[in-house]
Amino acid sequence: VFDELNMKSRKQKPQDDVAKASYKPTKSLLLKLSESGAQFRSYRDGSVVNLTPESSVQAQKALGADIIIPLDELPPYHITPERLKKSVFMTHRWEARSLREHLKDRKGQAMYAVVHGGVDRGLRRMSAEYLGSLPFDGFAIGGSLGKDRGELMDLLEFLMPLVPREKPNHLLGIADVESIEQAVRFGVDTFDSCFPTRMGRHGTMLTKHRGKVSPKSGRFKTCYESPDPEGWGMQDHTMAYLHHLVKAHEPQAASLITLSNIMYMNRFMQDIREKILNDEI
Q1: Across all residues in the chain, what is the average pLDDT?
Q2: Which of 22, 102, 123, 135 is deepest in the core (most CB within 10 A)?
Q3: Residue 279: phi, psi to the nearest 5?
Q4: Which of 127, 115, 138, 6 is closest to 65 using CA atoms?
Q5: What is the mean pLDDT of residues 85-98?
């Protein structure tokens, strides 16, 4: 929530001199974190919104969420051990309150616990053991996951054996191709990320045979082949057509590239599942 609100609050600095004179950076929309929950200011109308563990669960139930994630705090990577420990304990209390609210009426929905602790292995172990003692339906790996992919994988190698194996697990916010390929080997079941859609909006296409490509590149101006002939992405358009759309600043360019990236990720995960079933992973 903190990062999403900050992204909404940021304004691009204007370029012309008149606008620069009146430009004022926007402060963070997150107003307060307390035992009761999070308080933030709406980026739509400036009104104050209070989000509690209970109201978060109620909102997700009203939306019909298949998997409900409890309210939790995401502290930054660079944080003192004392502050991190305090954050983990408060998140645990929030999660226990969320679970109690969920159990009042399951409605056929699941709730995953969120294991926290940053890169502190003692806190991660404690978090996994405490949350594993509660009747959650599954377990998500959240919090700060390291400064790079190497630290993330070291953390998963340590943590995944501590997560209850009889229930599903999920890696929060990480789903780039390279991370998925490594994380599934440690037993991660599912992933989520804005990775494929964000790349698509910014003009990068994921392909099986070409890797990551930018249709904007001049080398695709006269390329009348589809991005991925074997169905990993779209087959109805050529790279030359996508190149034209991008260069002409057609909104359809971002839509098509994003759609192709989603198709690619679906096929990629299908391939991962087949490899697991064939004992290749």
Answers
A1: 90
A2: 102
A3: 60, 30
A4: 138
A5: 98
Q: Reading across the β-sheet that carries 30-34, which strands appear in turn? A: 30-34, 37-41, 48-51
Residue showing tokens 């004392």 = 82
Which residues fall within 8 angstroms of residue 65, CB to CB, at 6 or more apart?
Answer: 109
β partners of residue 171: 141, 191
The pLDDT value given to residue 63: 97
Which strands form 190-191's sheet, in the order they lie side by side?
67-68, 110-115, 138-141, 169-171, 190-191
**Helical H segments across the chain, by residue range:** 2-9, 17-22, 53-63, 81-103, 121-132, 149-159, 177-183, 195-201, 239-247, 251-277
**pTM for this model (two decimals):** 0.84
Give me 64's structure tokens. 């019909």
**How many whole angstroms separate alpha carbon 37 and alpha carbon 192?**
24
Tokens at 111, concatenated: 């709730």
DSSP state of 190: E
What token pair was written down for 241? 């057509």
Count helices and strands (H / E) in the chain: 10, 10
Q: How confident is the model at residue 281 (pLDDT cuts 50, 70, 90)?
A: confident
Mean pLDDT of 198-203: 95
Which tokens is 95 given?
């999660």
What mean pLDDT is predicted for residues 128-140?
98
Tokens of 151: 């630290």
- Give me the sign of the Cα torsion angle 175, 192, 205, 271: positive
Q: How far apart are the C-alpha atoms of 164 and 162, rounded to whole Å?
A: 6
The amino acid at 76: P
Q: How far apart are CA 133 and CA 222, in angstroms?
A: 60
